[in-house]
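Technical annex, item 7. During the second reporting period the consortium partners agreed on a shared format for inverse folding records so that results from different sites could be compared directly. Each record opens with the tokenized structure and is followed by the designed sequence. A conforming record, contributed by the partner at site C, is shown below for reference.
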């Protein structure tokens, strides 16, 4: 670990400050810190950074919270407060260079490496107890970590520390992003596992995160790639339900697989009904806004304000809006206000500033209390959480927070999440909160994306038409020997969950679309990946003869059977929709483009199922099947594919 000589001078000066005379001690501390800050600022302009991030272990736990808070706090205003504040500075400065404690959501460092680092520390690195600390740290038992992570450390911060002074010494941070994903779904043998069940998905956050990474000049982490969210980012021309029909209508397309001529793709699309604006129920919207220090970046709080400003123009006068902000402390920024009073709401948004740590749990509690109080019969209440996902204070038990949200959804209040910014994006927590809150998750990296989510698709984001939507496909082993679901790894359900109404699943909003793609292999196809079982039931001779070519022939029996379960908003008993899956029908540009996007996602994840099919083929297919592209989303996807190809090389 590289030692900073100026830092050593500062520590020595702080420890030498007279303890008997509080006024003299405060003056000495102030002079020492001023000298160090002046030295640090002078070196910021040099070629040598104050401290290289390469010399620092991954950010986690207590030190992570300290660094994030220091983004918004200068040293001089703190020192000028009291002798206790000066003592806080001693604790902060001496603590920062030491090894940090991993949180329960992050893998623990190697014990041997940790021992070597601790042994190398000089005795002087240990801070003496500071009198009357304004910030303390304590160890709180955390739920058992899946990979043996240590207990989280919880910060207790006095409200007086939470301020937004002028920019001062900025402490660099490392990437602490966490993404929710799982390994790719394996190929299933139909005779052994004929039924596939998953929750409907309409989130689009993954695609916007992928775009953000590529535009920043790097390939996205494989765990950031959720293929189903890439598919659902694009609009398709699925037929809408007729009057008197269920709230959404399924459609099925069977087509050749671009990356394997010996298999087929089965695309399942659901189109939700879009009610007239005048027929929408009144909306009670609570904007829960993260104003912590980590939001003090152009792509975070400023973009968030602009994005929510765009949305307000789409609300009706009878809708209501309330605003809750949370950081080191939580407060009601705007009481429930008619959406027609747009100037009042915009003024409240404009007053928000970033500063402090992140007390997400307290913010959610207050937001739910407000939303429940605003709700009347026949109305829709939704919390819209806007954050960078950095829940580093007040949430020492993420699983407990998710359970809290799951309990609250029984009140009928929906929770959706908008993600902003990169670097400390906790996508895993955001996804879990949205799923447990019967809501959706989106990531906003540009004002254009804000318009897509909060203007063009606002009705779907805010107004539900079906809750707990589950999809189940039973495959016919006479026609489909093997299958795999592309994506939806984090949305998998057990077979029995389909008929248990108490099991939570995805929400579909007004006008929403859901797209899912299976790759299926016929009996006898050279693309089969499993050897026949020695003791398995023999395939009938007639069936084997029909399937010898590995083709799925039009007019043949059903490939499978589709079942959908859903609940009307506010209801507890589900309804059932059924439809056969048969080959045939026209394969349009939309289906072919969806297959190109599925290939794009698998390439980003390094899939083993694509063979020699690569970037050139994906780009060619996407270009040839763009079709009608009113908003330019498909053209943008082709550009991103080209960029990803260059970065991959």
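Designed sequence (site C submission):
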């Amino acid at each position: 670990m590289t030692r900073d000589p100026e830092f050593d001078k500062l520590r020595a000066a702080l420890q030498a400050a007279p303890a008997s005379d509080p006024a003299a001690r405060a003056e000495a501390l102030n002079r020492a810190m001023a000298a160090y800050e002046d030295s640090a600022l002078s070196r910021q302009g040099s070629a040598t950074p104050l401290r290289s991030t390469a010399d620092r272990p991954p950010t986690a736990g207590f030190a992570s919270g300290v660094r994030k808070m220091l983004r918004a706090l200068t040293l001089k205003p703190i020192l000028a407060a009291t002798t206790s504040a000066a003592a806080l500075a001693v604790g902060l400065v001496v603590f920062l260079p030491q090894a940090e404690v991993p949180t329960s959501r992050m893998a623990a460092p190697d014990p041997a490496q940790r021992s070597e680092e601790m042994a190398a520390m000089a005795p002087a690195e240990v801070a003496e107890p500071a009198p009357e600390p304004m910030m303390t740290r304590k160890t709180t038992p955390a739920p058992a970590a899946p990979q043996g992570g240590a207990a989280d450390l919880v910060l207790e911060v006095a409200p007086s520390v939470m301020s937004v002074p002028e920019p001062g010494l900025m402490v660099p941070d490392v990437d602490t992003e966490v993404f929710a994903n799982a390994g790719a779904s394996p190929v299933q043998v139909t005779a052994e596992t004929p039924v596939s069940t998953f929750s409907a998905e309409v989130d689009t956050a993954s695609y916007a995160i992928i775009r953000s990474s590529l535009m920043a000049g790097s390939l996205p982490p494989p765990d950031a790639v959720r293929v189903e969210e890439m598919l659902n980012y694009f609009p398709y021309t699925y037929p809408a339900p007729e009057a008197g029909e269920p709230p959404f209508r399924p459609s099925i397309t069977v087509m050749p697989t671009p990356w394997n001529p010996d298999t087929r793709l089965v695309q399942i699309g659901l189109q939700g009904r879009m009610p007239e604006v005048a027929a929408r129920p009144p909306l009670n919207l609570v904007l829960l806004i993260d104003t912590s220090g980590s939001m003090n970046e152009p792509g975070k709080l400023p973009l968030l304000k602009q994005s929510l400003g765009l949305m307000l123009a789409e609300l009706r006068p009878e809708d209501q809006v309330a605003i809750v902000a949370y950081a080191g402390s939580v407060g009601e920024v705007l009481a429930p206000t008619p959406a027609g009073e747009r100037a009042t709401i915009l003024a409240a948004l404009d007053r928000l500033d970033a500063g402090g740590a992140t007390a997400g749990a307290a913010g959610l509690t207050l937001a739910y209390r407000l939303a429940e109080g605003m709700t009347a019969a026949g109305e829709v209440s939704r919390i819209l959480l806007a954050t960078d996902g950095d829940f580093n204070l007040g949430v020492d038990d993420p699983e407990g927070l998710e359970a809290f949200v799951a309990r609250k959804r029984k009140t009928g209040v929906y929770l959706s999440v908008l993600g902003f910014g990169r670097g400390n994006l906790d996508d895993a927590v955001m996804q879990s909160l949205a799923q447990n809150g019967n809501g959706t998750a989106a990531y906003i990296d540009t004002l254009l994306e804000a318009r897509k989510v909060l203007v063009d698709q606002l009705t779907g984001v805010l107004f539900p038409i079906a809750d707990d939507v589950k999809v189940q496909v039973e495959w016919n082993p006479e026609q489909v020997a093997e299958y795999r679901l592309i994506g939806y790894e984090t949305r998998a359900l057990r077979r029995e969950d389909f008929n248990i109404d108490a099991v939570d699943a995805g929400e579909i909003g007004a006008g929403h679309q859901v797209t899912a793609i299976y790759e299926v292999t016929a009996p006898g196809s050279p693309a089969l990946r499993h050897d026949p079982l020695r003791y398995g039931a023999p395939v009938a001779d007639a069936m084997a003869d029909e399937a010898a070519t590995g083709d799925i022939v039009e007019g043949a029996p059903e490939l499978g059977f589709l079942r959908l379960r859903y609940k009307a908003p506010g209801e507890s008993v589900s309804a059932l929709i059924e439809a056969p899956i048969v080959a045939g029908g026209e394969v349009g540009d939309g289906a072919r483009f969806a297959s190109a996007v599925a290939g794009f996602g698998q390439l980003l994840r390094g899939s083993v199922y694509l063979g020699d099919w690569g970037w050139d083929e994906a780009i060619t297919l996407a270009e040839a099947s763009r079709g009608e592209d009113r908003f330019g989303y498909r053209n943008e996807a082709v550009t991103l594919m080209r960029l990803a190809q260059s970065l991959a090389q």
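Residues 40-174, 539-550 have pLDDT under 50 and may be disordered. The first strand starts at residue 135 and ends at 139. All partners now use this format for quarterly exchanges.
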